[in-house]
Design a protein that fits this description.
InterPro entries: Rieske_2Fe-2S (IPR017941), Rieske_2Fe-2S_sf (IPR036922). Pfam families: Rieske. By secondary structure, this protein is of the alpha+beta class. Helices cover 15% and strands 30% of the residues. The strands form three sheets. It has a four-stranded antiparallel β-sheet with strand order 2-3-4-7, with no helix packed on it. A three-stranded antiparallel β-sheet has the order 1-9-8, with no helix packed on it. It is elongated, with a radius of gyration of 29 Å.
Amino acid sequence: MTDPTKPKNNRRSAIAAIVAGALAVLTPLGVGIASFLTPLFKTKKSPKVRVALLSQVPDDGMPRSFPVVADRQDAWTGYEAQRIGAVYLVRNPGEAEPIAFTAKCPHAGCLVGYTPGDTVFKCPCHTSSFNLDGTRVRGDEEVSPRGMDTLPVELKKLSGDGDIEITEIHVEYIDYQTGHAEKHSTA
């Protein structure tokens, strides 16, 4: 027979031990799973990248190609100074700020080319042509669903030595989806 003066805590103690043990195991497991999955849910930001000096883009209306180099994050791995694309900078006569076009064709993502002295950009993949202002040469008859994608440009003046003023051209490199008539960021 059991002693009526002794408390009956065996069952409660066992349940408390099971709960404490489960918490001790599940807490680090949950933190580990959350840490592993977090990169998959981060929103991508379009990097603002220095692509050239203003002195490298004269105001003659001729396009100049520049690589876009930035640090890149691929889920869990970071890569420093990777080429992520290319841009054409065009500075029209009398303009202080250039226009930036992504070199990626809006049709299928091929690299749009430009031959110095020519009056159009040409995509070698599906014969789309673009005027120097980025518009489609043949309008809706082009294979490309839209004109070349423009990118935001920011000029940053740096202090130079003496009377020399150095101005950098920074571009917000936005990777747009291909095959659509409207611009949609891939981020």
